[in-house]
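Thread: Modeling a multi-component assembly for a lab meeting

Hi all, long-time lurker, first post. My supervisor asked me to bring a structural picture of a complex we are working on to next week's group meeting, and I have zero experience with this. I have the sequence lines for every component (229 residues in total). Could someone generate the structure of the whole assembly? Inputs are pasted exactly as I received them:
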Amino acid sequence: DVKVTQSSRYLVKRTGEKVFLECVQDMDHENMFWYRQDPGLGLRLIYFSYDVKMKEKGDIPEGYSVSREKKERFSLILESASTNQTSMYLCASSHPDGRNQPQHFGDGTRLSIL
Amino acid sequence: AQKVTQAQTEISVVEKEDVTLDCVYETRDTTYYLFWYKQPPSGELVFLIRRNSFDEQNEISGRYSWNFQKSTSSFNFTITASQVVDSAVYFCALGRAGGGNKLTFGTGTQLKVEL
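Re: Modeling a multi-component assembly
Sure thing. I ran the full set together rather than chain by chain. Output:
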C-alpha cells in the first residue's frame, strides 16, 4: 500500500514565521502535490512537482514555495506566515502514466497561524 | 477551464436509507477522468473510484454505485443501505489526460448517517 506521511497532524505558528510542512511518500511516485482545504472551497492546488527539482504553480501559489530535493520528499514552505494561511494542508502523490492515476493522500496537517 | 460542482453541501440520512451524492462537471476535453474520494473525520482522503470519459458503464462495488452520464455531464454516487461508518465528506474530482495527474475538486458533500 502507498504510504504518504505528513510530518505533523497539528501545528501552531505565529504571524511572520517561516513554516515548513514536510511530506514523504514510499512508492517512488514522480508526482507530488500540495493542497489546502477550506470549508466551502474544497481542495485547492498550491503547487505540484513532477520530478526532483521540478515544480509548477497550482491555482493558489501566492505566499508559498516548495522544495523537492529528493524524489520521496516534497516540502511546502510558508515564507512569512499570515493568519489567512490557517488551513488544513494535504499532500498527495501519484504515478504519472498519462491516464491520471489516482492520487494518494496523507492524513493532513491542521495549521493555525496566530 | 475545468469545473466540478457538488451542489449538496450537507446531507443527513437515517441508517439504512439510500442516498445519492450529485456531481456535475465542465470540461472541453474529450478525454478526461472522474474520481470520487471519501474523507472520514480522521482527515485522509481515500480513493473510491476512477472513471475515464470513454467508459460510461455504471459501476457497482458492494453498497456503492456510480452513474456516469456524459449527456448531462454528471457522475453521481449512490450509497445503498447507508451505515454510520459512511459518515464523511465526499469529493468528486476531474482530471485531464496527461496533465500531470492534476485534479480539479468539487467543494465536497458532508454526509451524516444517523441511527
